[in-house]
Amino acid sequence: MAKSTAATVEEYLQELPAERRQVIEQVRQVILDNLPAGYQESMNWGMISYGVPLERYPKTYNKQPLGYAALAAQKNYYTLYLMGAYSGSMQEGWLQEQFDQAGKKLDMGKSCLHFRKLDDLPMDVIAQAIAMVSVDDFIAQYEQSRQR
User: Fold this and answer.
1) Which secondary-structure segment (H or E) carries 79?
2) Does residue 4 form part of some domain?
3) Which pLDDT score is estimated for 146?
4) pLDDT for position 132
5) Which of 63, 101, 108 is nearest to 86 (CA)?
6) CB-based contacts of 99: which residues, under 8 Å, 6+ apart?
7) I need a surface site. Which of 61, 92, 106, 136 has the fewest CB within 10 A?
8) Which residues span the domain enclosing 97?
9) Which pLDDT value is given to residue 147?
10) Does a structural domain hold residue 119?
11) How far apart are CA 72 and CA 5, in angstroms?
């Protein structure tokens, strides 16, 4: 799927073929079930996004909500963006360890975890990764990174 122009999550889901919608809906539910208080689901950058609302933290460099996670159906795979697991972070190392323990291959770019089918993801690990960082801690991490 090319970048979506959907204005709402519901519109985005309806754009997807049923099989791909089912995968996205299942991962989305794990995210929603484990998302710490204060993050908000929205559509941003053509995908389902989870971030700190501007009302809570307006000082972002791009005037967009501070992105914590995102979920998208790409043309040949799915992507789960985990901004807290950006290359070189402690969470990235933790994810690699957890995927290894689950017998799964971690296919990850800087902060984007690619998967082709639901079985590629250890869902309990995804749940933990989502639940791992509170809004306050994520804002602190962001501010620290901006000082570098």
Assistant:
1) strand 78-82
2) no
3) 79
4) 92
5) 108
6) 105, 106, 122, 125
7) 61
8) 9-147
9) 81
10) yes
11) 12
CB 80 within 8 A of CB 27: yes
Residues 96, 77: Cα–Cα separation, whole Å? 20
Q: Which CATH number does the domain housing residue 74 bear?
A: 3.90.1150.200
Which residues in the chain show pLDDT less than 70? 1-2, 87-89, 148
Taking the C-alpha atoms of residue 42 and residue 55, their distance in angstroms, rounded to an integer, is 14
Q: 46 — phi, psi (to 5°)?
A: 75, 20
Q: Flag whether 52 is in a domain.
A: yes
Residue from 87, 8, 84, 86 nearest 47 by CA? 8
**pLDDT value for 77:** 95
Please answer whether residues 112 and 84 qualify as being in contact, where contact means their C-beta atoms are separated by less than 8 angstroms: no
108, β-bridge pairs: 113
Tell me, yes or no, whether 42 lies in a domain: yes
Element (H, E) at 138: helix 135-147
Angstrom distance (rounded) from CA 84 to CA 10: 26
The residue to which tokens 């690699």 are assigned = 96
pLDDT one-digit tens code per residue, 70-86: 999 998 999 999 997 77
- Counted residue by residue, the chain has a size of 148
What percent of the chain is helix, strand and coil (3-state, nearest 5)?
45, 20, 35
| Helices and strands, number each (H, E), in the chain | 5, 5
Which token pair is 40? 């908000």
